[in-house]
């Protein structure tokens, strides 16, 4: 039996000591798997993701990634271990060019490696290549998200965490961004994202985990979750008509 790439067990995360937001959440992600975290507003999904990125303190529980214990380690070590993080907002430097944004994602790399990674990014997202010298604030919302994703990929992570990557985007662009994440997962880079566009997320992911009040509620393939009438109505915004 192969171990999951990411195994989070019974994690507690908090902003204020003694006042957990995430009480007991467990999630596994396999290599190349695309997993969505769903749940009501305030369930602690973003907090959970930030805790995995080392941006929120953790209490009980553990985070194991690629055989390494990453519980409570600082963000730079998490990135070095092979995890990329794309925050929901302010995820690009608006005044900097696209190329400088990408370089900022991996500024410690030697020049030759950096150029290789830039080529990879432009190959993956051709729209960025065409505009490489323009400021990021000239990009559309969807292209900005692509840039934020491309920047997180500059360190060649094995897992990328994304906090609501389609927030505020038009429906067609939502699909475009999510399809690009599906392609990413297909290329072997695991994806764990928090998403509010439930139906669009379920159309592309392999599995979804539902968090409620900082704890696991249920999980399964999109098909299995949608087939459960109680879950579909309560969490997926899909009511069966009778
Ligand atoms: N920086 C912070 N300091 C203190 N409390 C916070 C902070 N950020 C979030 N919270 C609180 O943590 C709780 C969970 O928020 P979180 O954003 O993790 O939930 P969520 O499930 O992602 O919700 P949503 O779907 O609305 O984004 C909320 O009650 C929120 O007020």
UniProtKB/TrEMBL annotation:
Entry keywords, A to Z: Amino-acid transport, ATP-binding, Nucleotide-binding, Transport
A GO molecular-function descriptor: branched-chain amino acid transmembrane transporter activity
Keyword Cell membrane: no
Superkingdom, taxonomy of origin: Bacteria
A biological-process GO annotation: L-amino acid transport
Domain ABC transporter as annotated: residue spans: 6-238
SMART domains xref list: AAA (SM00382)
SUPFAM superfamilies tied to this protein: P-loop containing nucleoside triphosphate hydrolases
A Pfam family it matches: ABC_tran
Family from the record: Belongs to the ABC transporter superfamily.
Protein name: Branched-chain amino acid transport system ATP-binding protein
Species this chain originates from: Gemmobacter caeni
Taxonomic lineage: Bacteria, Pseudomonadati, Pseudomonadota, Alphaproteobacteria, Rhodobacterales
């Amino acid at each position: 039996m192969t171990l999951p790439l990411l195994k989070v067990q019974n994690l507690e995360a908090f902003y204020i000591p003694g006042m957990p937001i995430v009480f007991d959440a467990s999630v596994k992600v396999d290599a190349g798997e695309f997993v969505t975290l769903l749940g009501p507003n305030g369930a602690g999904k973003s907090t959970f993701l930030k805790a995995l990125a080392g941006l929120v303190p953790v209490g009980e529980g553990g985070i194991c990634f690629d055989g390494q214990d990453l519980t409570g380690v600082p963000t730079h070590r998490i990135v070095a271990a092979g995890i990329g993080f794309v925050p929901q907002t302010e995820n690009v430097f608006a005044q900097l060019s696209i190329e400088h944004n990408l370089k900022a994602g991996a500024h410690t790399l030697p020049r030759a490696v950096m150029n290789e990674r830039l080529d990879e990014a432009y190959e993956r997202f051709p729209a960025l290549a065409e505009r490489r010298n323009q400021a990021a604030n000239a990009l559309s919302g969807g292209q900005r998200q692509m840039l934020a994703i491309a920047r997180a990929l500059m360190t060649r992570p094995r897992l990328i965490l994304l906090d609501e990557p389609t927030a505020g985007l038009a429906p067609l662009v939502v699909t475009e961004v999510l399809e690009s994440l599906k392609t990413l997962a297909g290329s072997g880079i695991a994806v764990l994202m928090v998403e509010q566009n439930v139906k669009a997320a379920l159309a592309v992911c392999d599995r979804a985990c539902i968090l409620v009040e900082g704890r696991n509620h249920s999980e399964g393939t999109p098909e299995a979750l949608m087939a459960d009438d109680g879950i579909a109505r309560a969490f997926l915004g899909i009511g069966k008509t009778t």
